[in-house]
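dumping these here so i dont lose them again. two proteins, back to back, each one seq then structure tokens. dont judge the mess
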Amino acid sequence: MTYEWPLFFCLFLALWSAIVAGNFSAFSEFIMSALKKTEPAGGIEAMQHINREVIKTQFVAGILSITVFSVLFALYSLAVFEGAALITLTLASLVYVPSVFLMTMLGNVPMNNRLDSVDHTSVEAQNYWMEYGAKWTRLNHCRSLGSTLTSGLYIIAAITLITSGQV
């Protein structure tokens, strides 16, 4: 008996990972660049508002749900799949969790919290803004790459599940 839900779940996770990657990429490539070109107080204030708003969005729900779903799907895969399908499904989780979830929680979020705690017009904020912009963007590039790789791995897993007859 074949079950097609793993195939559709791979495609769902690939799509969500690609959407997350696109958001990260947009932020790294032109939003942060534009914010860093404004007067520091304006860039800081805008980023503070963005960080307060983003936590209420489907984007953050996607980041968190992909983490949970990819780990659970990898564990399920250990018991059900074999060969290249098992490897790619496991790798997808092993790429996503550290490069997106952990980097977000241990890197970008603490930086966002620190930025939120300063008065955007203060000298302290302006000094931190230069460090923040460079480091935050580097971390965000990594998150974008991790999400993109994860999406590709789920696409490869879907293809492998089909070609190996496991779905």
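---- next one ----
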Amino acid sequence: MNRYIIIFIALISVFVSCDEKPSFIDFTYPDGNTKALVLSYDDGTIQDIELAQLFDKNDLVGTFNLNSMYLGVTRGWPQQNGDTIYQRYVPKDSLLIIYKNHEIAAHGALHKNFTGISSDDVLEEINTDLKILKSLTNREIISMAYPFGSTNDSVAKLIVSTGIKNGRTVDDTYAFDVPKNYMMWHPTCHDSKVLDFLNPYLELNEQHLSVFYVWGHSWEFGNEDRWNNMVRFCERIGKSKDIWSVGHGQLTNYLLAINNVQVEEQKITNPSDNSPIWIQLSSGIKKLNPGESISLIQ
């Protein structure tokens, strides 16, 4: 008789444990990942073709920031030493082929230095870029890289009015932190240093969200050693199963969606007009769909 009582008590404990409410630990990226990779490349020169193919081969997503007024032309850029570098830009009708699997972003229509021109000219640079890129791709453009990496608080606030949600500088942090100000987004490093940070990021094991943000120009890969290093980087990080390779815009939208989630003492709610969000609970990873709530342990 005692044996049956023990079994009965055990069954009750199982049912009670199944009904226990979980506690909220933290937000994660999709599928429970806490690490992300952004690959951001500027200008839109013809060398983007080979770079985009490298990303495709390794299931990586790139963000390509384009100067729309130079698409399809060859342009000379005078250098301080007196030389001129000639850049050939990708054709207008090729954008949806080259960047099929990647994000297209703004970089100023004519690559002007935003801190050296008027507010009206800054808006002209961005709005023209957005208009042309949208007409060529029928995509929403929400990301940008500042030409020459040049910006300030006034410029960043001004550009928000155009619908842009993030702006990347060239001020390397050599860290994997997610910034608080998305319009002053400082990257981890230039691609010439990616191998220095590859192993530390692959081995990173932390609960909070992080991002390995790489930037550069595809025309810089004329240096064979630089190109070979990038190939090695893409092949290794592309095999990682715990890193979310994502466009800058999609990452920004996800982070903004996290801010909309309502975390209360007794429940967590994802608004009905929000995107799906992944969370870490004491019971495991949970996808919180729009309009869904989860009761939490008090």
